[in-house]
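Handout, page 2. Input:
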Amino acid sequence: MSKLKYKIIPEGMLNDIYIPVTAVFIDYADVKACNLTMYEACEKIAATIPGPAGLNMFDMTATTTNSNGIMLDGAMVCMAASDYGKINKDFGYLEMVEIPYSEELIKEEPHLKQWKKLFPDRKLFMGPNPNTKSIPIHNAVLTGRAGNNNSGTEMMHYINMEELLLPISGQVEIMKDGKVEVGGTGWTISVGIGMVVGEEYGRIVPRRQWKCGKTAHNSGEYAKFLKSHIPVIAADKSELAKSMINALQAGAVPGRDIGASPSVLSIARHMKIKPDYENIEENAYAELASVGCTKEWIKADVEELTPEEIIERAHEIIPGIDNPRRFNVSDIVQVNYVEV
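Output:
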């Protein structure tokens, strides 16, 4: 018998935030080593969890994008939701699509100019195939009380309606045994995650519905409240800064190639990289201004810093997360094994 390794954050209280469903993180390399399919691995692990759970599997040799179009070191390849140890066969499991490289793709999705520069020869996974998924609108799976939405970045308990935000960059840190920040999502992140990029197979929004410079929330000042009350487990800001710096150094322009979120703009200001002011729509500017990122703030002449200085001062520079607490992943995540 082999043993399959997986990581979990159990349902219940994590310091002062509530985890509504057990969150599970699986490495595809461990699945392959056990000669299992991705679905079989999810089933084996789900059988060990009596309550509602969201399960996310990662290929750490691949790459993906976050909602702002920043490319990351690792990619989600499937997600599942389980309850009472079972996965709903129709709605409880979904695999992500591998995206082949082409110059036409880079032209249509210019944030992917990062791919060859930062992650050459890696596979790219984004969201599921919108033509074949069972749930037509959201990139979601559900089983019983458990929901796993937006390609595994929002987990919800469907009875008490409590939710947990799990930005993909934070999940990558969990997979790498790195560092995370835990707290309330707050206004700034609520606005920032709406500054999306157009992707045919987007993890959040498919079919290139919103081009860079637009806001997916399109909610004016209300945008800052949309997710503000939800707890979040995010990447440590020093790690977040590294990925944004890499994207900017690869030539990605905020507001034209990558989303002009408060975090991206905060880094770009100190690197003296200007966003594409003309391409950012007034609706997006209004949402940014509601959390202090006015046009005057964006254009302010701030101190130029080296990448190393930005990373060192990341917690001072990057806004977001209410009452944050920083943890080593090993302090909040359990490592379990199941016989297969």
